[in-house]
């Protein structure tokens, strides 16, 4: 008589999952303050909201996202301790756009085979980024999917919840003609457009281990540069009354213009001056290697601008000073003006992501 099939024989190792939890739990605990109830390993994370009873009309904000095909770079390099910054940045920085403080986050990792050390590296990165954002990591899930994913393949996703006072919500309702656009530099490609980037690299025949003089490091190291997490800096700026923050936009999929248009009201147009910044080397390299048209670059990659604050005209200097004090590289990107609805200029970006609001126009040439 032959032995029957077991879960382990089917490719799922529950003991490896338990070991991964042991390796990651200290990093997770460091993100958890007294508001987190319970420890690692529960069915659900609990968060004490009693400290927010002071709110007159509290609103909860939520966001979910993943890292996309950037995980292929991490897998190729067998380096997994930074991809968590990409996940956290994609999630919590969407929440701060409305002025909400991200309170807690959960993560989900699907992999072909649970390698405890690899899973622990991923979660440690998530936890470190949560510390930067001031967000508790209250739970997560690691799922082993043999036969669906190869043993070395994985994908990550996450969700976060934040809170904001109703009369403090940032967004289109606050934006007016005369406002100023303040750009915050990205740390690199962040976590959007890697399908294009990877296609360009493959077309050029470049290897990830290739040293690139302009980068001062290998191509793989440059492409794996973690996403900058803006959450705490954006919240600090929003609390500075002198800065007069009216809105934020997180420059993710779709590029600068498409995302900026989402936070503008109808009747205004934001004019972005390309000459106000120099496009970082990694984007120029992608452009040159793939002969990528400027329109495709602008509609896919952040090109060096990771977050934009829309501030009152009288608050621009204070906003720049505050960001400088926080160590954020920032500059004046452009202005918001009244928009003539009869204008049909082809260079206007409007109606993106299903939002019919303001318009954006990019002018000039990059340095």
From TrEMBL:
PurM-like C-terminal domain boundaries: 176-339
InterPro entries: PurM-like_C_dom (IPR010918), PurM-like_C_sf (IPR036676), PurM-like_N (IPR016188), PurM-like_N_sf (IPR036921), PurM_cligase (IPR004733)
Top-level taxon of origin: Bacteria
UniProt keyword Nucleus present: no
Recorded catalytic activity of this chain's protein: 2-formamido-N(1)-(5-O-phospho-beta-D-ribosyl)acetamidine + ATP = 5-amino-1-(5-phospho-beta-D-ribosyl)imidazole + ADP + phosphate + H(+)
Metabolic or biological pathway: Purine metabolism; IMP biosynthesis via de novo pathway; 5-amino-1-(5-phospho-D-ribosyl)imidazole from N(2)-formyl-N(1)-(5-phospho-D-ribosyl)glycinamide: step 2/2
Enzyme Commission number(s) of this protein: 6.3.3.1
GO MF entries: phosphoribosylformylglycinamidine cyclo-ligase activity
Record localization: Cytoplasm
Annotated PurM-like N-terminal domain residues: 59-164
Keywords tagged on the record: ATP-binding, Cytoplasm, Ligase, Nucleotide-binding, Purine biosynthesis
Name of a matching Pfam family: AIRS_C
Family, as annotated: Belongs to the AIR synthase family.
Protein name: Phosphoribosylformylglycinamidine cyclo-ligase
Lineage, opening ranks: Bacteria, Bacillati, Actinomycetota, Actinomycetes, Micrococcales
């Amino acid at each position: 008589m032959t032995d029957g099939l077991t879960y382990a024989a089917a490719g799922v190792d529950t003991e490896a999952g338990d070991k991964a939890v042991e390796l990651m739990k200290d990093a997770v605990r460091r993100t958890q303050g007294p508001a987190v109830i319970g420890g690692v390993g529960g069915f659900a994370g609990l968060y004490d909201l009693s400290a927010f009873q002071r709110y007159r009309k509290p609103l909860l904000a939520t966001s979910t996202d993943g890292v996309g095909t950037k995980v292929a770079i991490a897998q190729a390099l067998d380096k997994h301790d930074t991809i968590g910054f990409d996940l956290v940045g994609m999630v919590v920085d969407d929440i701060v756009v409305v002025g909400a403080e991200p309170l807690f986050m959960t993560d989900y990792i699907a992999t072909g085979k649970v390698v405890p050390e690899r899973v622990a590296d991923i979660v440690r990165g998530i936890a470190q980024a949560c510390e930067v954002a001031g967000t508790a990591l209250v739970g997560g899930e690691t799922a082993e999917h043999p036969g669906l994913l190869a043993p070395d393949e994985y994908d990550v996703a996450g969700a976060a919840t934040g809170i904001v006072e109703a009369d403090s919500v940032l967004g289109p309702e606050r934006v007016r003609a005369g406002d100023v656009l303040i750009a915050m530099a990205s740390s690199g490609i962040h976590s959007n457009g890697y399908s294009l980037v990877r296609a360009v690299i493959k077309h050029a025949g470049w290897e990830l281990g290739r040293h690139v003089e302009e980068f001062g490091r290998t191509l793989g190291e440059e492409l794996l540069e973690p996403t900058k997490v803006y959450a705490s800096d954006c919240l600090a700026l929003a609390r500075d009354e002198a800065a007069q923050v009216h809105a934020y936009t997180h420059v993710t999929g779709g590029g600068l213009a498409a995302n900026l248009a989402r936070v503008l009201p109808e009747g205004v147009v934001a004019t972005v001056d390309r000459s106000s910044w120099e496009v970082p080397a990694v984007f120029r390299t992608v452009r040159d290697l793939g002969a990528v048209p400027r329109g495709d670059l602008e509609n896919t990659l952040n090109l060096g601008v990771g977050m934009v604050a829309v501030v009152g005209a009288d608050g621009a200097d204070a906003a720049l000073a505050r960001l400088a004090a926080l160590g954020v590289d920032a500059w004046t990107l452009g202005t918001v003006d009244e928009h003539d609805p009869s204008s049909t200029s082809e260079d206007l970006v409007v109606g993106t992501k299903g939002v019919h609001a303001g318009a954006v126009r990019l002018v000039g040439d990059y340095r």
